[in-house]
Amino acid sequence: MWIADNWNEYEVIDTSGGEKLERWGRYILLRPDPQVLWNTPKTNPAWKKLNAHYHRSKKGGGEWEFFDLPEQWSIHYRELTFHLKPFSFKHTGLFPEQAVNWDWFSELIAGAGRPVRVLNLFAYTGGATCAAAKAGASVTHVDASKGMVGWAKENAEASGLADAPIRWLVDDCVKFVEREIRRGNHYDAIIMDPPSYGRGPKGEIWKIEEKIHPFIALCAQLLSDNPLFFLVNSYTTGLAPAVLTYLISTEVAAKYGGRVVSDEIGLPVSDNGLVLPCGAAGRWQP
Predict the structure, then answer these.
(1) Are residues 56 and 195 in the same domain?
(2) Helix, strand or coil, per DSSP, at residue 13
(3) Quick one: DSSP state of residue 269?
(4) How far is the C-alpha of 50 from the C-alpha of 86, rounded, in Å?
(5) How far apart are CA 238 and CA 212, in angstroms?
(6) What is the pLDDT of residue 201?
(7) How many domains does the chain have?
(8) Closest CA to 206 of 174, 233, 177
(9) What is the model's pTM?
């Protein structure tokens, strides 16, 4: 498992009873997590010092209960700054486990010794975009949500990247890739974080089981003659690391050679020494 263990301002303190106890900077949040299938004693005093608690409803969804939490606050990772706020379906606007991928591709970008063009698809609030730009890449950031792209811009500005070569686009990712192919544009690296299910700006339906393989095949057509990396993230339970390896191998490694490695990604749990699984990632590099 690839473990995001370089955080200073974020930690999973403890896990029990279907929930994870987290520290986001100075604030303690309690959120549900489907991987936490165990019940262990809640001995850490932070369990009783919550700033916010997300309660999941048995009917689906849920709601936040706030005790003492600002509408927005920030945390840092290395040289990056991220604005956080609690919003729909338990999210805060950041997936800390992705830092293990940021570290991986940042090293590749910084060591490339040449200009690197990165395409970030389903780019959310821009964690990967900011990490790639900070490492020296020019980035095209694409997400179907205008609000998420605006949030990503705020994170870039807070990280000192207001003047970085980042192109911000609100667009359906599939249609954007198809247009880029027709335009003859190419990228040295592609990052994608596709949802299990989603809708584009005009109601386009995305179901990952049906769309992921043809989409990876489409994106492979955008790679330059000397690509640097290809990264696919997944939070879909049925999409095991071995499946990601096969998908990337058939469409990227078959043409460019190199190697594909996929694994779970996770976060260390301070109180019990466990590692909390948080999805999977598949990585290709020459």
Answers:
(1) no
(2) strand
(3) B
(4) 14
(5) 13
(6) 61
(7) 2
(8) 174
(9) 0.94
Which pLDDT does position 236 carry in this prediction? Answer: 80
The encoded tokens of residue 170 equal 């609100």
Cβ within 8 Å of residue 246, ≥6 positions away: none
Indicate the residue among 54, 71, 88 that finishes a domain.
71
Show the tokens assigned to 76: 């840092």
| CATH number for the domain that contains residue 261 | 3.40.50.150
137 and 251 part of one domain: yes
Residue 78 lies in a domain: no
Mean pLDDT, 10 residues at a time, over the chain (286 residues)? Answer: 98 97 98 94 96 89 94 97 92 97 98 98 97 98 95 98 98 94 98 82 72 94 98 86 96 97 98 94 97
Q: 57 and 110, same structural domain?
A: no
What does the angle CA 209 – CA 233 – CA 109 come to, to the nearest 5 degrees? 145
Query: Looking at the DSSP assignment, which residues form a beta bridge with residue 276?
Result: 267
- Same domain membership, residue 147 and residue 44: no
Burial group, residue 35, by CB count within 10 angstroms (0-12, 13-18, 19+):
middle
Residues 27, 135: one domain?
no
Positive or negative: CA dihedral 133, 137, 138, 140: negative
pLDDT of 200: 63
**Nearest one of 3, 152, 23 to 82, comparing CA atoms:** 152
**Has residue 112 been placed in a domain?**
yes
Q: Which residue from 285, 223, 277, 246 is spatially nearest to 20, judged by alpha carbons?
A: 277
Q: Order of strands across the sheet with 27-32?
A: 10-16, 19-24, 27-32, 52-56, 62-66
Do 112 and 211 belong to one domain? yes
